[in-house]
Automatic annotation (TrEMBL):
Keywords: GTP-binding, Hydrolase, Metal-binding, Nucleotide-binding, Riboflavin biosynthesis, Zinc. The keyword tRNA-binding does not apply. It holds the Pfam family GTP_cyclohydro2. The lineage of its organism: Bacteria, Pseudomonadati, Pseudomonadota, Gammaproteobacteria, SAR86 cluster. This is GTP cyclohydrolase-2.
Length: 218
């Protein structure tokens, strides 16, 4: 049995363009990062809660970088949760698929040199994806969410959460905008990381002018 644990440290109301969310900061037994839960409505003991487990992406979430779809995915999740009036975003501080911001920036340079997002991580001595979801599962359990509908294109995320005891009732697609800056990156996610994306004709529609391929949160 795992000895991992999370502790809800503090919380506050966060007014956004989509409404008033509640933001909770969690400490944990595994790292010195404050992982977060942003939720709307009453989620305690509720079934089929619309949920996004989102990994931190400073470049996408904060700067609005077009190299990835991360910021767009986060905004999409907030909008959909607001429309339903109930839902959770678990915001995990695992930048660059777990390799950290500095290494992600190094990976960007490798991508600009022609390597895709998977090979860039491997060349830096990392796995293609080093994220794990046990703490995210513990946060959902602390919120007493009974079951979820998960906003994701990543089947591995569903499997990881289910392995941690989270009841995932449904996968909800998170389709973003495909454009020249992220087209090759999205193709890599679909072909090499098994993400479920409707971009079969992306290469024909958006020929890459370079190899800008970022780290994704999904």
């Amino acid at each position: 049995m795992s000895n991992k644990h999370v502790t809800r440290a503090t919380s506050a109301r966060i007014p956004t363009k989509y409404g008033n969310f509640q933001l909770c900061a969690y400490t944990n037994s595994e790292d010195d990062k404050d992982h977060l839960a942003l939720f709307l409505g009453d989620v305690e003991n509720v079934e089929n809660v619309l949920t996004r487990v989102h990994s931190e992406c400073f470049t996408g979430d904060v700067l609005g970088s077009l190299r990835c779809d991360c910021g767009e995915q986060l905004d999409f999740a907030m909008q959909k949760i607001a429309e339903e009036g109930c839902g959770v975003i678990v915001y995990m501080r695992q930048e660059g698929r777990g390799i950290g911001l500095s290494k992600k920036i190094e990976a960007y340079n490798l991508q600009d040199a022609g390597h895709d997002t998977v090979d860039a991580n491997l060349l830096l001595g990392h796995l293609a994806d080093e994220r794990e979801y046990s703490l995210a599962a513990l946060i959902l359990k602390d919120l007493k969410v009974k079951s979820i509908r998960l906003l994701t294109n990543n089947p591995a995320k569903i499997e990881a959460l289910e392995a941690e005891g989270i009841d995932v009732k449904e996968r909800v697609s998170v389709e973003g905008t495909v454009h020249p800056e992220n087209a090759q990156y999205l193709m890599t996610k679909a072909k090499r990381m098994n993400h479920i994306l409707s971009i079969d004709n992306t290469q024909d529609t958006y020929p890459a002018k370079d190899q800008h391929e970022p780290q994704s949160t999904d």
